[in-house]
Amino acid sequence: MDSLIGVLDGFHNLTGLPWWITISASTVAMRLIILPTLIVQLQKTAKIGQLFRKLPPPLPPPLSGRSYRDQYSLFQKKRRELGCPSFLWNFAYFSVQFPCFILWMASIRSMCLSNHPGLDNGGILWFNNLTEFPHGALGPVFPILVAGLHYLNVQISFQKSQAKHYPGVLGLLAKYYKIYLDILAIPLFLIAYVVPQGSLVYWTTNGLFHVAQQLSLRNDIVCKMLGLPDTGALAGNTSPKSLHEGQKIMQRWSLGDSRMQSKLESSTTPKFMFEDSKIMDENVSAESSSPEELLQQALQYLGTGCQDQAVPLIRTAIEKNPDLHIALIGMGQTLFSNKLFAEASVCFEHAIPKIEEQDPLLVLAYFSAGLSRKNQGDKEAAIKLLQRLTELKEPEQVMNKACYFQGFIALGSILSNEGRKSEAAKYLRAATAYDPGVERFLKECEEAMEDQSSQQSTKPPDLKGP
CA-to-CA distance for 58 and 84, rounded, in angstroms? Predict the structure, then answer.
């Protein structure tokens, strides 16, 4: 504090500017000096968002058998291999900006309370004496500015944020956090009455700079000049992390899950599948929103089980971009759940060529396409699709691995019913390494093979002559 007061005093004596301009200029200078930290943070977090989907979870998934230490070591190793920045970069700017805010605030307040030379007449207009607290008819001006700028910054921050659309507890927490920040404007208004006017000059300047900074970083031209992602990515509308969450929703909705199968049996075909539904959601407009934005909103609805709201959004996203494979899989799963297997298989098979081999959704696409063909009665097509699934590399994540081996089990079941017991046993044997419960089916298949073999060996020879 003493060093900062010395710098402010030296700058004031050197330039001869009034103290209120000196305080404002030092505030702007401080914010400009720490601005590169924010730019680097945004660049790092954008890269984290691009690589996030390729990282294993930092904590061990349930029933994985891995310890916390081993899972975190795997996470760190993979992060370093991909060149993914540390997640601590998310807190870089705050760790610099907050101490600077406190330092400037405390230093200027100390100068005002100690009647630093020149501050008693270093202001202008109604705040000529910077050592006094707000008073008189114009006393509320600074408190209103402080509280109003805080409220404005909160609204700008949440204006394009998707946090309010998060399903479940996350959305609720985001909603209440914004309410808390909004209400915080009231105590800030009251606190400003017991802060010297010199400190309020700093506080107001800092708030104005923050508003200007947020608005500037929402401009695509400014972002391009600073080497930052576009405003949509900064706002979180179409970030890879959001699509990663969408993949997790798709994978949780595995068509081979027993809970899902019971749901399928009780499903009925809803009318909205055959009507030209209009998107009534107030947050998403079909005309102005991109396919990725429509898909993200639809995935959030699927995550909360609201199919009626999700389907029109997915349909519109596919119409705008037929190559959006996540939307095709989402529509395919919805059609499958309503027993429209032919339409579902078209969606899944159309999505497969558009998915990269390392993408975990490729497992789900092959598995779902195979089940769709099976339910249509097209056993040969189902076998080919599920065999393609078994040729893929075994996934590392538990959720993907479960779907992967369910494909082995489904393939073994189809082959067994078709009389191809030896082939079925091969796939069931591979699945037992993941799920010991499959051993019962494998044993039945092997017993059937033995019976068939013994029948062939005891069959009497053909005694008919030529």
Answer: 13
Handedness of CA 198, 200, 204, 207 (dihedral sign): positive
Residues near 140 by Cβ (< 8 Å), separated by ≥ 6?
Answer: 134
Find all residues with CB under 8 Å of 314, minimum gap 6, and list them.
Answer: 294, 295, 298, 327, 330, 331, 334
| Structure confidence by residue, pLDDT tens digits, 284-311 | 444 556 666 676 676 666 655 566 666 6
User: What's the per-residue H, E or C state across 393-414?
Assistant: CCCCCHHHHHHHHHHHHHHHHH
What one-letter code names the amino acid at 86? Answer: S
Helix axes 398-417, 379-390, angle to 10 degrees: 140
What does the pLDDT look like over 200-223, one tens digit per residue? 998 999 999 999 988 888 887 887
pLDDT per position as a tens digit, 145-178: 999 999 998 888 877 554 554 444 556 777 788 8
Round to whole Å and give the CA distance between 441 and 408.
Answer: 12
